[in-house]
User: What shape does this take?
Amino acid sequence: DRSSLLEPFHTHAADALVAFDFDGTLAPIVDDPDAASPMAGAVSALERLAARVGEVAVVSGRPLDFLERWFPEPSAVTLVGLYGLEVAVRVTGIPTNWVDGPDTLTVGAG
Assistant: This one.
């Protein structure tokens, strides 16, 4: 029964992390990477999901500034850019930028 696979999201939603890739998942693959945009309704669906689970993240090889075009503050969606070199954690509404690797963590705007 496939519904049992989702049971942890119902019983422990506050502990759940749901992550999505940008290209090919939220946005179709396109010839011009700068022209990529999320499918209709994808951004609002992730924002609604973020209100129901512990954390929703978009993970991408793209830089944060590209992802922030689609998920600007005060988005509740955590953004992970450049394969993890840039992170904007927004679970609490305060952006956390992990730009210089695990040894440097700065909290605050931008």
Remarks:
- Confidence is low (pLDDT under 50) at residues 93-110.
- The radius of gyration is 15 Å.
- Residues 42-50 form the longest helix (9 residues).
- The CA atoms of residues 5 and 54 lie 17 Å apart.
